[in-house]
Design goal:
Elements (H helix, E strand, L loop, with lengths): L7 H4 L17 H10 L2 H5 L18 H19 L3 H10 L8 H11 L8 H12 L17 H6 L21 H8 L9 H24 L11 H14 L6 H12 L13 H30 L15 H19 L2 H23 L6 H9 L3 H14 L2 H11 L4
């Protein structure tokens, strides 16, 4: 890795910081960024936020924190192989889910609808808000929080969707009142292109949750890969995969992608039974799939660009179509066999009701907000700004604390 590929503008912070005292450990600006995200309160809260199976359901299955650690490992290894800065990319991976509210994407959809009067809700926009405002570490000369005061390159790498809200219901990366920091971060760019470090983070996220959600579903006895020998079940899975991910893909394309993965020696030939041998076989499959996907991308990058370092906007990540289809097949398996079950639908309905009732209760009684959010509410200039503060508060809660707040302030959760 050639660190001189990053210049002073990449290392710039919104609030300039003096060098650390001479007896402190010497760290690069990007290493300091990583440490700030690791120690952030929002990072700790990820341990009690839903991944796919709820965090209280089993000691083995993943929560948002363990998922983020695994994404960070994949992102760091891939960044090192490609020649972009591993600290920047790892920090982006550690931060990528910080903005997720209670109950994962289900909670995200509820808060988006409820916050329409103040510009909607998006987990990635909320991540930028946390990193640049809500996480208390640094203040500017006017007394305003600038959050963790990360470097421009790191903050940009954390932004999967580098544009403000354009169409309700679509992804975006910044709320209207966060546009000043967004504009500073983008440093004059007006296009929608993401830096390569953000693209690596995004791929690492896709790889991790496609593989690990299937692994968690297997351990939780929701998924049996040997059941995919049933043509009828496969047809159902392919339809869910189209509904959720790739609407234009054909059954034949999915069948071919599954068949390619099944040629791996570690693919499950018998049902998981909870034994150490079975668990070891499952972990080997997980490792092989991650290596398969990342290796194909690395080879495609070298074939496209040669062996140069891929830094900031020098290149775009190349993901072979076959690899994308294989990743999507795994997502579809988890979506159909875990997230589309009747039991899961009932749980998700109650989660949506709980969050809606909690937001309404806090809008009526803002005195119940935590002190930091109560101060924000007092400083808000209109109803839209006050609603945004309530949404910030609710989004900060874990799954368990959302239930507790609801029980305390609304009724039996």
């Amino acid at each position: 890795m050639r660190t001189n590929e990053y210049d002073d503008r990449d290392r710039e912070r919104i609030v300039p910081e003096p060098p650390k005292r001479v007896d402190a450990p010497v760290r690069t600006p990007f290493e300091r960024d990583r440490a700030r995200v690791v120690h952030a309160a929002a990072s700790r809260r990820l341990a009690a936020k839903t991944q796919v199976v709820g965090p209280q359901s089993d000691d083995f299955v993943r929560n948002r924190l363990t998922h983020s650690l695994e994404v960070a490992q994949i992102a760091r290894d891939l960044a090192r192989a490609l020649g972009c800065h591993p600290d920047i990319t790892e920090t982006a991976a550690l931060a990528h889910d910080l903005g997720h509210p209670p109950f994962g994407h289900n909670g995200e959809q509820v808060l988006d609808a409820l916050s329409e009067p103040c510009g909607g809700f998006e987990g990635n926009a909320q991540t930028l808000r946390l990193l640049s405002r809500l996480e208390a570490k640094t203040f500017d000369a006017d007394g305003h929080s600038v959050g963790l005061n990360l470097t421009r390159a790191t903050l940009d790498a954390c932004t999967k969707y580098p544009w403000p809200r354009e169409i309700p219901g679509t992804k975006f990366g910044a709320y209207a009142d966060d546009l000043p920091v967004f504009t500073w971060m983008r440093d004059g760019r007006t296009d929608h292109r993401t830096c390569v470090e953000a693209q690596v983070m995004d791929l690492a996220d896709d790889v991790a949750y496609s593989v690990h959600d299937v692994e968690d579903g297997i351990v939780a006895d929701r998924i049996d890969l040997t059941g995919l020998t049933d043509p009828g079940l496969r047809r159902e899975v392919w339809q869910t995969t189209r509904d959720w991910y790739l609407p234009d893909a054909t059954d034949d394309a999915f069948e071919e992608a599954l068949a390619r993965m099944q040629t791996q020696g570690s693919w499950q030939r018998s049902s998981y039974d909870g034994s150490r041998r079975s668990l070891a076989a499952l972990k080997n499959l997980t490792s092989d799939l991650i290596g398969r996907f990342c290796g194909s991308v690395q080879a495609a990058m070298v074939a496209t660009y040669g062996s140069d370092s891929f830094v900031r906007y020098r290149a775009d990540l190349v993901i072979p179509d076959e690899t994308l289809l294989e990743i999507t097949v795994l997502k579809g398996v988890a979506a159909h066999l875990v997230m589309r079950t009747d039991e899961r639908r009932e749980v998700m309905t109650r989660q949506r009701e709980l969050l809606a009732e909690l937001v309404a209760g806090l809008v009526d009684r803002p005195d119940r907000l935590d002190a930091a959010f109560a101060n924000d509410h007092g400083d808000a200039i209109d109803d839209a700004a006050r609603l945004r503060v309530v949404i910030d508060q609710v989004a900060s809660l874990t799954d368990a604390s959302a239930h507790a707040w609801h029980e305390r302030f609304v009724g039996t959760a």
